[in-house]
């Protein structure tokens, strides 16, 4: 099971509108990713070598080497960095992830062996995610987890190109016309997740087992949350909590902000709080 980024340009499938170029002195000016992207890349990855650029719709991908690692990094044409991927050895994976895998009930280490290489996915405003591939004979599963193993999920099947379920592809194409799919996977419980780049954000889309859209989300900074929503958190009911994270979520019923709150006195006993754009708490 491969966890390298699987890229589908929505709205341009089969159109052949992919352009790759090398970043060297022989490049033509119109082959380059644009000044804003180049400046953002140089600021983000000083010392990168062997840089190759590829244009896909309104996004630019750079393949390069940095500190002995091969990277793929994505920017939009405004120069906003959206995500990057590179590989590390399993031995260098955070201890919390290795402990989680070593104590897995669903994938016991007596039967499942981690691959020597692990993919790391960095995205704007997200925690880093690690993709550890486990093998049991001919069976494979990918465990995705953040550095603390606080968030984790098992992906039992990846999809790419023509293998992407048509229902998912149609939904994304119709609703996010300039988006770029980077990962589509099926969870161990039968639900589906699609990762995509859209505008200035890296977003996640969730579908149920029947591929019905559940919601789309992406993380936002607390400073970006409207005052009417923040005001809810100023009530005495939440004075003993701190904000661990904020996501913007789009549901069929309407948009909302999803907060994860951590008790100041009992870290780890987190609670979720959803607030709509008018400042109303959503209870279901």
From TrEMBL:
Q: What keywords were assigned to this record?
A: Signal
Cited SUPFAM superfamilies: BT0923-like (SSF160574)
What region holds the Putative beta-lactamase-inhibitor-like PepSY-like domain?
A: 61-140, 192-282
Q: Where does the signal peptide begin and end?
A: 1-20
InterPro entries per record: PepSY-like
Q: Which domain of life is it from?
A: Bacteria
Pfam families from the UniProt entry: PepSY_like (PF11396)
Please give the name of this protein: Putative beta-lactamase-inhibitor-like PepSY-like domain-containing protein
Q: What species is given as this protein's source?
A: Odoribacter splanchnicus
């Amino acid at each position: 099971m491969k966890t390298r980024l699987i890229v589908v340009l929505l709205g341009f499938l089969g159109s052949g509108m992919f352009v790759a170029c090398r970043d060297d002195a022989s490049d033509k000016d119109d082959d380059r990713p644009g000044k804003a992207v180049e400046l953002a890349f140089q600021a983000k990855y000083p010392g990168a070598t062997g840089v190759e650029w590829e244009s896909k719709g309104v996004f630019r991908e750079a393949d390069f080497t940095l500190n002995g690692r091969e990277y793929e990094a994505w920017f939009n044409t405004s120069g906003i960095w959206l995500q990057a991927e590179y590989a590390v050895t399993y031995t260098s994976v955070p201890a919390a992830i290795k402990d989680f895998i070593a104590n897995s009930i669903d994938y016991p280490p007596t039967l499942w062996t981690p691959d020597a290489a692990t993919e790391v996915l960095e995205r704007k405003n997200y925690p880093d995610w690690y993709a550890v591939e486990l093998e049991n004979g001919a069976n494979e599963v990918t465990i995705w987890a953040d550095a603390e193993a606080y968030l984790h999920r098992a992906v039992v099947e990846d999809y790419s190109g023509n293998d992407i379920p048509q229902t998912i592809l149609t939904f994304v194409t119709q609703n996010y016309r300039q988006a770029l799919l980077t990962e589509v996977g099926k969870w161990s419980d039968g639900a589906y997740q699609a990762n995509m780049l859209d505008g200035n954000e890296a977003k996640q889309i969730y579908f149920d087992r029947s591929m019905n859209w559940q919601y789309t989300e992406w993380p936002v900074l607390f400073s970006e949350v409207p005052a009417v929503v923040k005001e809810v958190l100023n009530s005495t009911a939440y004075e003993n909590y701190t904000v661990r994270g904020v996501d913007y979520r789009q549901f069929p019923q309407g948009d909302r902000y999803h907060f994860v709150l951590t008790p100041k006195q009992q870290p780890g006993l987190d609670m979720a709080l959803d607030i709509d754009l008018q400042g109303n708490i959503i209870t279901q």
